Amino acid sequence: MFTGIIEEAGSVVAFEPKAEAWSLIINAKAALADLSVGDSIAVNGCCLTATQFDATSMRFDVLEETRRLTNFSALRTGALVNLERSLRFGGKVSGHFVTGHIDTVGRVQVFEARGKDYYLRVGIPREFARYIVHKGSIAIDGISLTIAEVTESSLAVWIIPHTLSVTNLREKRVDDLVNLEFDLLGKHVEKLLLTRTP
């Protein structure tokens, strides 16, 4: 479980297919603190298991399905990725509860400065529009954000300069893919309503 508060933007050292899985190696600093093999790290919002690490980097095995269903399919050497260690008991929850299970990818439609802040609009598959609520929560590449605008095929959020400076959003351009995880509560409510007996 995560909160969507990014600890740092690490950089991809290598992402390549191996015999059993894709191997993802990321340079990091803060996310390496107290790290143990087997720990969960959210990488662009996707929960991965650390399989190896050293003083400057960590390695993950990535399933082909994970690569195909997330924006990992577009990862390149040197790309910035958002990193967050899993929530610890006694830790504060500053964002919202994020599972690290990506629902779908969206495509950046607009990303521009408007005054002192930044406006980001992301196109989403229409079948996921039911999970988008004005002023609700969304995790975009693992970043906990508040939805400011909703249409049948897109959502928009406002980004403060601090968030831009400490996340991979500073590299995003129109047409880039972003990982999306919708609010867990909404998905549970939907499931309960669908399985309710008359």
Descriptive notes:
The chain has 198 residues and is mainly beta. It has 2 domains: 78 residues, Elongation Factor Tu (Ef-tu), domain 3 (Beta Barrel); 92 residues, Elongation Factor Tu (Ef-tu), domain 3 (Beta Barrel). Helix content is 12%, strand content 41%. The protein contains 3 helices and 12 strands. The strands form 2 sheets. A 6-stranded antiparallel β-barrel has the order 1-2-5-4-3-6. The protein has a 6-stranded antiparallel β-barrel with strand order 7-8-11-10-9-12. Strand 3 and strand 4 form a beta hairpin. It starts with 7 loop residues before the first strand and ends with a helix. The model has no long low-confidence stretch (mean pLDDT 93).
Q: How is this structure best summarized?
A:
This protein has 198 residues and is mostly beta strands. It has two domains: 8-85, Beta Barrel (Elongation Factor Tu (Ef-tu), domain 3), CATH 2.40.30.20; 104-195, Elongation Factor Tu (Ef-tu), domain 3, CATH 2.40.30.
Name the features.
12 strands; six-stranded antiparallel barrel; six-stranded antiparallel β-barrel; 2 domains; globular; Elongation Factor Tu (Ef-tu), domain 3; mainly beta; single chain; 198 residues
Strand content: 35-45%
What do we call the CATH topology of the largest domain?
Elongation Factor Tu (Ef-tu), domain 3
The ordered string of helix (H) and strand (E) elements is EEEEEHEEEEEEHEH
Q: How many independent structural domains?
A: 2
Topology, please?
Layout: E1 8-17, E2 22-27, E3 40-43, E4 46-53, E5 57-62, H1 64-69, E6 80-85, E7 104-114, E8 117-123, E9 137-140, E10 143-150, E11 154-159, H2 161-166, E12 177-182, H3 184-195
Antiparallel strand pairs: 1-2, 1-6, 2-5, 3-4, 3-6, 4-5, 7-8, 7-12, 8-11, 9-10, 9-12, 10-11
